[in-house]
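User: Hey, quick favor. My workstation is busy. Could you predict this chain's structure for me?
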Amino acid sequence: MPRIALFQSCTGIDPARNAESLAAAVEEASRGNAEMLFTPEMSGLLDRDSNRAAARLHCEEDDPVLSACRDLARKYDIWLQLGSLALKTGGDKLANRSFVIDASGEIRARYDKMHLFDVDLPTGESWRESSVYHAGDEAVVAERTPVGRLGLSICYDIRFSDLFGRLSDAGAQVISVPAAFTVPTGRAHWEILLRARAIEAGLFIVAAAQVGRHEDGRETYGHSMVVDPWGQVVLNMGTQVAVGFADIDLGQIDDVRSRLPAIRHRRPIAEAALR
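Assistant: No problem, here it is.
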């Protein structure tokens, strides 16, 4: 039964300090005998001031946080699901990219966030991710990880059940949902959506989240969670910056799917006809 760790962080505007926080989290996860550590969306830099952030952004091959995480994986002999980094791509927009890094420091999988958060909230907050990031176009499952076949998603993707169906059809046993959910939407929908996706897909959801008041002024919801295939919350980390642990019994997946075989009953649906 693999043991995993989740890092619930309050990432700031300085990648060097954020890398130090990640190093401490990896060390704690290793001491706790975790085989894999999951981190939130935007683990390397969280800054909505695009001019200030621009000087601290890199392409994948030069990103110091990614390089540090690969070194940490090797040092502590632990897998990392690096929730995401903001990376230059050579074009006019960035990638919001997630990584699976194995215990030798090799990158096993990459995923670019498919669904971008463009919204005006009643609180007055306005977000336009599509003005900064390009949308990914490929669903990704990493094979032979410590938690079996690991499907990748990022934050706002949780609202699009078709992606989770595609990942479960591709054999995912666990889906990661690294996030930086706002407080209003987190209070209203975070747990409901995580539990719904776990139930629909009949698998584990692992959601490492950002939490607290950040240096750029935003506030994130926290409540990093692990949800089992029956929709039960195995871990809820509340609102503290911390490393949490959970044991993943992959045998639960076959048990739940045998009792509730909805995935086997899933059928392709033609486009709706207007009458």
